Amino acid sequence: MLDIGAQLEPQTYRVTRADLVRYAGASGDFNPIHWSDRTATAVGLPGVIAHGMFTMALGGRALSAWAGDPGAVLAYGVRFARPVFVPDDDHGAEVVVAGVVRAVADGTAEIDLTVTCGAEKVLSQARATIRVRA
Amino acid sequence: MALDPSYKGRTYPPTPPYVVGREKIREFADAIGSTDPVHRDPAAAAASGYPDVIAPPTFPVVVVTLANQSLIDDPGLGLDFSRVVHGDQRFAYTRPVHAGDRLVCVSTVEEIMSRGGHDFLTTRTDVSTDAGDAVVSVWSRLVVRGEA
Predict the structure, then answer these.
(1) Contacts of B115 (CB under 8 A, 6+ apart)
(2) What would the pLDDT profile of B88-106 be if each residue is shown by its tens digit?
C-alpha cells in the first residue's frame, strides 16, 4: 500500500481560538501569546498564534490516519518554521498536512510531511517513521 | 552567550512518577480533535493490541514539560523564558503511552550553542516506566532570541 513516492491523502484541520484555549488547558501550556492579543502584539506578533505543539499534534493526527493506528507512529520530528496566526473569528485558520513516502523498509515507512497554513510552510524538516500494516 | 555552557551534559534526577489517566488521554485527544476510539475506549484499544487506551503521539510533551520545569527555572542556566521560542521537537517511541503508565523522566542537556546572535538549548528527556521500561525519548530545542 505504501510505496516509495506515494502521496498520502492531505488532511485539512481548522484551528479556532477556542481550540487554542482547549489545547492550553489539556497540555498545560498557558503562554498568553496563544490566547491574548494584548500579549501577542506586545512581543511583536500581529496577533495570537497557535502553540507549535498544537500544529505538531495535527501532523500527528494525519500520521495516525495514514497509518490506521496512532500507536503505529515510531518516530516523529519537526522544526517550527513559521507561526500559525489564528484570527479571533468563527473561521480561524486552516492547517493542511500532506505527506509523501520517502523510504520503505522492514515493515516501516519513512514519511516526509508538508504542513502549510495558507501559502506558508509552518513546519519544516517534518519527518516520521510509521509501522506499516502487513 | 546568555546561557551557561557548563550545563551541557548535565543530567537531572528522575522525576516522581506521573500517573497517566484515561480521562487525561481523552482530554488531550479531544483538544487536538482526534476522535480515534483507541484514545477513549479500552475495548477498542484492546482490539488493537494495547493494554489500555493509548495517548496521541505528541502527548508525552505534557509530561516532559513538567519534567523540564526545574531546568527552565534553574537560575544558574540563565534562560530568559520571555525570549524563548520553540525551535525543534522530536519523539522516538519504544511504544505508545497508555493509561495506567507511571512515567518517570530523566532530562539531559544535550547541547548549548550560540549562532547568529541566538542561543540554542537542546534537551533530551528519556521517559520510562517506574519499573525501568523505556517508553519514549523526547528531544526539545529551544531558541533564545538575542537582544536586538
Answers:
(1) none
(2) 999 999 999 999 999 999 9
- Flag whether B45 is in a domain: no
Specify if B134 maps to a domain: yes
* A26-59: pLDDT as tens digits: 999 999 999 999 999 998 899 999 999 999 999 9
What is the mean pLDDT of the segment spanning B105-112? 97
- What is the complex's ipTM, to 2 decimals? 0.96
pTM for the model stands at: 0.96
Residues B73 and B84: beta-carbon distance below 8 Å: no
Looking at CA atoms only, how far is residue A86 from chain B in angstroms? 15
Instruction: Give the alpha-carbon dihedral of B124, B70, B80, A59, to 10 degrees.
Output: 40
Query: Nearest chain B Cα to A74, which residue?
Result: B93
Distance CA B130, CA B34 (A): 28
Which residue segments constitute the domains of chain A, with CATH numbers given?
Answer: 7-15+51-131 (3.10.129.10)
Of B33, B50, B92, the CB nearest to A75: B92
Which contiguous run of DSSP H or E holds residue B93?
Answer: strand B84-93
Residue B26 domain-assigned? no
Residue B109 structural domain: 5-20+56-144
Residues 16-75 of A with CB under 8 A from B: 19, 22-23, 25-29, 43, 52-54, 56-58, 60-61, 63-64, 69-71, 73-75
Q: Which residue of A has its CA nearest to B57?
A: A60
Give the model's confidence band at B81: pLDDT under 50 very low, under 70 low, under 90 confident, else very high. confident
Is B131 contained in some domain? yes
B34, closest residue in chain A (CA to CA)? A61
